[in-house]
Structure formats: structure tokens, C-alpha cells
Amino acid sequence: MARQVSVVGVGYLGLVHAVCLAHHGHPVVALDTDEQRIAGLRDGVLPFFEPGLEEIFEQAQARGLLHFTTDPADLADAEVHFLCVGTPQSADGRHTDTSYVEAAASRLAPYLSRDALVVGKSTVPVGTANALAARLRNLTGREVRLAWSPEFVRQGRCVHDTLEPDRIVYGVGGSRANDDIAVLDEIFAPQYAAGADRVVVDYATAELVKAAANAYLATKISFINAVAELCEASGADALALADAIGLDRRIGRDFLSPGLGFGGGCLPKDLNGLGARAEEYDAARPAALLREVDAINDKARTNVVELALDLCDGDLYGKRVAILGAAFKPHTDDVRDSPALDVASICRALGAQVVVHDPIALDNARRAHPELSYRDNVLDACNKADVVLHLTEWPQYAELDPAQLATVVGRACIVDGRHGLDPDRWSDAGWRYRAFGRPLAA
Ligand code: UGA
């Protein structure tokens, strides 16, 4: 049965969620305070690139199921409201800022019908849902139905992960929890039909499931990067090691790729947020573990710079450094906390002339780092380079012709920060190839 729903916040999470709800036949009103973004969406302009989104967005628009607004009064008829606003890192760089969630609840409260269900999807510190339930009670003078259902979507795979998730988690509480579960079951019926598992827990567990899932993924990446330090020191091969231990089904190969480490708008923020929360609860051991995961991740960036220094006789001053990749990972134009751009900035601070290429993230990169130079063609970016750094593993970089690239660079030296290139192909074409945690080519 189609339900009238609203989505508050049309960032990555909210917009994809809104479009997927409409794709499943629900009439959706999506609210955001960003007037420009809402005006663009009304004109059919998506504010970011996400594979597969445009097609189902256009279909939902054509069926008249998607409405965009900046006026919370337009949400009054909705039976279910999904809170999808951002929860950025606070100014101290550690805590999670939940002020947008609180503001969204305050804007929504006057328009909530008596029976409406509010469903939080934003990533929030443990304790937020309980505080929000109290806030909604104060604002409306009655108990408001509230559930927390965190998202596990990956950028670049948002549509797939929303339509075919591994699991859907409901954090429930309050006197109508069973009714809330029934509504969510109905809304997510297509996802269950596609094979998703359902997990029903309390608010605090749901909040922590999300934070712990991201922290675990970060820990897995930092684990392999810590082992890569041992490989680098001992002459072992971190990539072969990752392949070998990943064959154990209890370990698994996913998120075990050594290299430049994690970035983006989620893993670093959620790791720090969980660490800060652990400190607030005086849980010293999880706090220390999460801090170390973060420190190993920072070190992965310096390791790549050190390899570049090695290939440039210990000095990057005045050297031309070509950077392949600006996005924090392939298949997205997002450059938030991009390890590639961080390395680019470190090289620039060491006096290098840095030129960056990316297939789709250059506009965002320019806005975030106007001090760097950009080229939209790999050959131009690598022109006269003293060293090339491969920092985001776009598939097209693995297909580059090393012999052709060797004709434009100043010196044929490459650091493979993502272990995504074939060392033999590059060495055979005359390149000095280095990747952290892998033995030098013979
Ligand atoms: C992450 C989680 O994977 C999602 O499940 C979660 O829903 C999302 O955060 C969120 O909280 O919204 P995302 O930030 O899109 O998704 O990116 P990931 O695919 O997790 O990659 C994160 C970073 O880890 C990237 O910089 C990637 O290059 C790096 N990475 C990934 C590695 O360095 N090694 C690996 O083996 C895998």
C-alpha cells in the first residue's frame, strides 16, 4: 500500500532515499532549507552524481510522485517522516553535530499529524533518539511516534544499497512500537522481497549498530595498513597477504585493500564521533582503539608522500607531481576528506608543483582546494611530471598505457597509492614503480 511520506534533508542519503521511496510507488514530499537545491530539483537537476539515480529520478518525476519544497507546512499530510539531515563533524573535529536533526524536528513538530511516525535515518551519537523523543514531546505536548532506522548505503552504490540492502535495522521505543514496526515492514516490503534481513532493537542499539559498522570497516582498513608497515619493513607483499587472509571466509577480502586508507564524509567522521562518545562514557579502551585506527589512517597518507620523496631524491621542492584521482574513492565526485587531495596538499606544502586529474570530481576539487592546479586530461596532468601518484582507483587508470604516458612525463616514476596498477606492466614499460608494503620490482 502506498503511503504519503516525507523526507527531510535532500543530501546524498535523503535524496536517494526519497527517489527510491517514489520508485516503490509512495508519493514523497522532500524538504530542504537549501532553496537553490530545491529549485534545481524541481527543474530536474540532480545536485550530485550517483550511478543509476538519474533514471529512477526522471521516472518518479514523470509519475508525479516527487515533490520538493522548502516549506514544512507542505509535509502536514505525510503519515511517515524520514529525517535524513546531515550530522557533520563539530568544529572541534571530534564530536558529531546533531543540531540539524534538532532543527529539523522543531520545524516538523507543528505539522505532525496525531498518528504520524517520525523515522530517523541520519547517523547520530548514541542517546540522540531518546533526546529527540523528549524534544518532540515538549514541542507537541504529546508522545510522538519515533523510530530510528540507520542507513548503510555507500556512495557510488547508493541506489543499489537502498533498493537491495543487506539488512534494515529498526530502533524502536515508545508505547506504539509494534504499530511502528508494522508501518516500517510495509514500507520496506520490496527490500525484504529482494532478500534484506530485518533487525529490531532499541534506539541505543540501532544508533550504535550504525556507528560500530563504520568503525569496524575503518578498523579493517587500518589493520591491513598497519600490517603493510610490517610488510614494507620486512620485504613481504601486503597485497598478496590481503588476498591470502581474505580467502578465510571468517575474515573476507572486502575492506582489506592496503594503500592510502579511508576518507569521505562518513568513515572518518563516524570513527571520531564514536571515539568521542566512548570518552564521554569513560570507556577508555574503545576510545584508544578508535584513536589508533585514525592515527594509522593518517600515517597511510604520509607513507605515500615518503615514497614520492624517495623517488625524487628526498626533495619535492620545485618538482612536478601529477596526481591521478581527487575523489575520496572511485565512482563518486565527492572530495570530502579525500586522501588524494590531502596528499596533494602535503606535496604542495613541501614545495612541489602539483597537478591533479580526476574523471568527474574536478569541479568539487577546485572548490575545496583552489590553490591546486587541475587538468581534465591525464596526459596533460602528467606533462613533464617528476613523479606520478595514483591515489584514487578509477578503473580507467588501471587501463592507462604506461608506454604512452612515459613519453610525456619528465621522469617515469610512479607511486601506486591504491595498489590498483599492474607493477609488471609499468616496470616493463621502463617505470620505477613503488607501492607501500610491496617489495620493489626485480
Ligand atoms: C561508508 C560505509 O561503507 C557505508 O556502509 C555507510 O552507509 C556510509 O559510509 C555512511 O555512513 O553513510 P562510503 O563513505 O560511501 O560508505 O565509502 P566506503 O565505500 O565505505 O569507502 C570509504 C573509504 O575507505 C574510501 O576512501 C575508500 O577508498 C577506503 N577503502 C575502502 C580503503 O582504503 N580500502 C578498502 O579496502 C576499502
UniProtKB/TrEMBL annotation:
<protein>
    <recommendedName>
        <fullName>UDP-glucose 6-dehydrogenase</fullName>
        <ecNumber>1.1.1.22</ecNumber>
    </recommendedName>
</protein>
<dbReference type="InterPro" id="IPR036291">
    <property type="entry name" value="NAD(P)-bd_dom_sf"/>
</dbReference>
<feature type="binding site">
    <location>
        <position position="123"/>
    </location>
    <ligand>
        <name>NAD(+)</name>
    </ligand>
</feature>
<feature type="domain" description="UDP-glucose/GDP-mannose dehydrogenase C-terminal">
    <location>
        <begin position="322"/>
        <end position="423"/>
    </location>
</feature>
<feature type="binding site">
    <location>
        <position position="329"/>
    </location>
    <ligand>
        <name>substrate</name>
    </ligand>
</feature>
<comment type="similarity">
    <text>Belongs to the UDP-glucose/GDP-mannose dehydrogenase family.</text>
</comment>
<feature type="binding site">
    <location>
        <begin position="255"/>
        <end position="259"/>
    </location>
    <ligand>
        <name>substrate</name>
    </ligand>
</feature>
<feature type="binding site">
    <location>
        <position position="336"/>
    </location>
    <ligand>
        <name>NAD(+)</name>
    </ligand>
</feature>
<dbReference type="InterPro" id="IPR014027">
    <property type="entry name" value="UDP-Glc/GDP-Man_DH_C"/>
</dbReference>
<dbReference type="InterPro" id="IPR014026">
    <property type="entry name" value="UDP-Glc/GDP-Man_DH_dimer"/>
</dbReference>
<dbReference type="Pfam" id="PF03720">
    <property type="entry name" value="UDPG_MGDP_dh_C"/>
</dbReference>
<keyword id="KW-0560">Oxidoreductase</keyword>
<dbReference type="InterPro" id="IPR036220">
    <property type="entry name" value="UDP-Glc/GDP-Man_DH_C_sf"/>
</dbReference>
<dbReference type="InterPro" id="IPR001732">
    <property type="entry name" value="UDP-Glc/GDP-Man_DH_N"/>
</dbReference>
<dbReference type="GO" id="GO:0003979">
    <property type="term" value="F:UDP-glucose 6-dehydrogenase activity"/>
</dbReference>
<dbReference type="InterPro" id="IPR008927">
    <property type="entry name" value="6-PGluconate_DH-like_C_sf"/>
</dbReference>
<dbReference type="GO" id="GO:0000271">
    <property type="term" value="P:polysaccharide biosynthetic process"/>
</dbReference>
<feature type="binding site">
    <location>
        <position position="87"/>
    </location>
    <ligand>
        <name>NAD(+)</name>
    </ligand>
</feature>
<dbReference type="InterPro" id="IPR028357">
    <property type="entry name" value="UDPglc_DH_bac"/>
</dbReference>
<feature type="active site" description="Nucleophile">
    <location>
        <position position="266"/>
    </location>
</feature>
<feature type="binding site">
    <location>
        <position position="269"/>
    </location>
    <ligand>
        <name>NAD(+)</name>
    </ligand>
</feature>
<comment type="pathway">
    <text>Nucleotide-sugar biosynthesis; UDP-alpha-D-glucuronate biosynthesis; UDP-alpha-D-glucuronate from UDP-alpha-D-glucose: step 1/1.</text>
</comment>
<dbReference type="GO" id="GO:0006065">
    <property type="term" value="P:UDP-glucuronate biosynthetic process"/>
</dbReference>
<feature type="binding site">
    <location>
        <position position="37"/>
    </location>
    <ligand>
        <name>NAD(+)</name>
    </ligand>
</feature>
<dbReference type="GO" id="GO:0051287">
    <property type="term" value="F:NAD binding"/>
</dbReference>
<dbReference type="InterPro" id="IPR017476">
    <property type="entry name" value="UDP-Glc/GDP-Man"/>
</dbReference>
<dbReference type="Pfam" id="PF00984">
    <property type="entry name" value="UDPG_MGDP_dh"/>
</dbReference>
<feature type="binding site">
    <location>
        <position position="263"/>
    </location>
    <ligand>
        <name>substrate</name>
    </ligand>
</feature>
<feature type="binding site">
    <location>
        <position position="210"/>
    </location>
    <ligand>
        <name>substrate</name>
    </ligand>
</feature>
<dbReference type="Pfam" id="PF03721">
    <property type="entry name" value="UDPG_MGDP_dh_N"/>
</dbReference>
<keyword id="KW-0520">NAD</keyword>
<feature type="binding site">
    <location>
        <position position="32"/>
    </location>
    <ligand>
        <name>NAD(+)</name>
    </ligand>
</feature>
